[in-house]
Amino acid sequence: MKKQFVLSTICMLCLGTIVGCDNLENTLVVGYTNFPPMGYVDTTTGDLVGFDVEVAEKVANYLDMNIEYKKISWETKEAQLESNRIDCVWNGFSYTQERADSLTLSDTYMLNSIIIMSKIENSYETIDSLAGLKVCVEVGSSSDEYMLAGPSTTFGEYKEYEDYATCFTALQGGIADAIIIDTICANYILKQNSDIANSYYLSTSSIAQEKFCIGFKLGNIELRDRVDDAIDALYASGDITEISRKYFNVDLFTRE
Q1: 177 pLDDT higher than 90
Q2: Which helix (H) or strand (E) holds 210?
Q3: Are 28 and 60 in contact, with CB atoms under 8 Å apart?
Q4: Cβ–Cβ contacts within 10 Å for residue 58, how many?
Q5: Of 52-56, 91-95, 225-229, 247-251, the least confident
Q6: Above 90 in pLDDT, residue 19?
Q7: How many CA atoms lie within 13 Å of 229's alpha carbon, on the beta-carbon side?
Q8: Residue 208 has pLDDT above 60, yes or no
Q9: 127: CB partners within 8 A, 6+ apart
């Protein structure tokens, strides 16, 4: 009788372990940073919100998966994927050839432009107009990568901050003369600061253009394809359009 009890207990523990593993495998773990309006914590509710966050939730639900968000350092995103701590980076993640060579990327879903934000009295329009000035970017962002690899303009100072919110604080306080930033983030910042938005200028010409995608561990084609198929289905149903209009007032979703 005692042996039967022990055996039954072991079987129950094993079954519990198996169920636990199944639940773990059925969870989409999304890596994110604070990048409004794509993914960020609402300071009023404490909830994680944003365009990418809401689309990811819809995708997980469509695939009948659980979803878990893990905040990461943008500089360690590749290491987080490689070590399987996260399944994907889904937070305004720009497509680049370098990333395509080292990661498995989804189809692109949004076009974004890199521009200059400055105070209205300066209205800087080109990179050359920033020569000798104090310029800042979000560290590890596509804007940062582009500036480090591209233009040869010599700035008075080139400062990398943790996020664009900190960059905007630096611009407000005169610590920086300009921010190299993407249009989506720039417009969101000004929307959040509508009382002073008219005091700032966004360049009308773009320095470069980028396309957003989702980054998966190199070789994880199966999950990438499932997510891509779900996104296409959700766009066809109108769900993604509704989310886009909520954050941008227009449908910015686009496939190639």
Answers
A1: yes
A2: strand 208-216
A3: yes
A4: 20
A5: 247-251
A6: no
A7: 8
A8: yes
A9: 116, 151, 153, 207
Surface-to-core class of residue 129, CB atoms within 10 Å of its CB (0-12 exposed, 13-18 middle, 19+ buried): middle
Q: Which tokens belong to 64?
A: 């009948």
- Given a contact cutoff of 8 angstroms between Cβ atoms, the answer to whether 184 and 56 are in contact is no
* Backbone phi, psi, residue 76, to 5°: -110, 15
DSSP 155-178: -SEEEEESSHHHHHHHHHTTS-SE
Q: Which of 118, 127, 153 is nearest to 206 (CA)?
A: 127
Query: Domain segments of the chain: what residues?
Result: 2-110+213-248, 112-209
| DSSP assignment of 73-121 | -GGGHHHHHHTTS-SEEEEEEEP-HHHHHHSEE----EEEEEEEEEETT
Residue 10 has pLDDT above 60, yes or no: no
Structure tokens at 256: 């190639």
Which CATH class for the 112-209 domain? alpha beta
Q: Which CATH fold topology does 2-110+213-248 show?
A: D-Maltodextrin-Binding Protein; domain 2 (3.40.190)
Whole-number Å distance between alpha carbons of 192 and 205: 23
pLDDT at 16: 39
The pLDDT of 128-150, averaged and rounded, is 91
Could you count the other beta carbons within 10 Å of the beta carbon of residue 13? 10
pLDDT band at 49 (very low <50, low <70, confident <90, very high): very high
Whether the CA torsion 94, 183, 226, 15 is positive or negative: it is positive
Entry pTM: 0.69
Say what the pLDDT of residue 9 is. Answer: 40
